[in-house]
Amino acid sequence: MFYTTDRNQHGLAHDPFKAIVSPRPIGWIGSRGADNSINLGPYSFFNAVSDRPKLVMFSSAGRKHSARNTAETGEFTCNFVGRELVEQMNISSAAVDYGVDEFALAGLTARKGELVDAPYVAEAFAVLECKVTEIIEPKSLSGEASDNIMVFGQVVGIHIDEAIIRDGRLDMTLARPVGRMGYMDYSEASDVFEMLRPRV
């Protein structure tokens, strides 16, 4: 099958776009607002975009609480979503009013960052502490603004639970990272194999 996205007539029960671009890591974003309220929300439009400097990005459909807070304070955390925390991650996705503490809602421990004044999930195997570098509104081919807001942050500090370190590396069979597959589907990426880059 083939279809053009301007008409989006794919004939399927659900739009397949987000299922094709998968698995996607989950950006579990911790933030603090100017009013000092804290927020925790998962974003499946998330990824690392640079290693030098270390930059990550999450994209919010509209100015949701995380986007609002990061614009106000310039700081956030990215919390690793492993299989053991997937239920809590899902609870934190509930559409609640601004100011509701999703850490408490999900039964998680909010801990203040070492270098940022944003909370992180103490139970997470790994956490990135980030400072905002830019916030952009991506545009379409016609120049029309997207519904999404992209928040870029530079990683200034990293927490790692030593329980997932084996032989000097993070062991993903222990960390059991969860990815978004589209629709309401998720996957656990603990079936790991290694391939070395070929030498030409």
Describe the overall structure.
By secondary structure, this protein is mostly beta strands. It has helices at residues 17-20, 65-73, 86-91, 102-105, 172-175; strands spanning 24-25, 27-32, 38-43, 46-51, 54-61, 75-79, 110-112, 119-121, 126-136, 148-160, 165-166, 169-170, 178-182, 185-188. The strands form four sheets. Strands 3-2-6-9-10-5-4 form a seven-stranded antiparallel beta sheet, covered by helices on one side. Strands 1-13-14 form a three-stranded antiparallel beta sheet. A two-stranded antiparallel ribbon has the order 7-8. The longest helix is centred in the middle third of the chain and has 9 residues, at 65-73. The mean pLDDT is 96.
Relevant terms:
200 residues; 3-stranded antiparallel β-sheet; 5 helices; 14% helix; globular
Strand coverage percent: 35-45%
Q: Write out the strand line-up for the largest beta sheet, numbering strands in chain order.
A: 3-2-6-9-10-5-4
Helical content, roughly?
10-25%
Question: Strand pairing plus helix content: what structural class?
Answer: mainly beta
Order of helices and strands: HEEEEEHEHHEEEEEEHEE
Number of helices: 5
pLDDT averaged residue by residue? 96
Q: Choose one word for the global shape.
A: globular
CA-atom Rg in angstroms = 18 Å
| E-strand count | 14
Characterize the largest beta sheet: strand count, sense, and whether it forms a barrel: 7 strands, antiparallel
Unreliable stretches (pLDDT < 50, length at least 5) are none
Distance between the termini: 37 Å
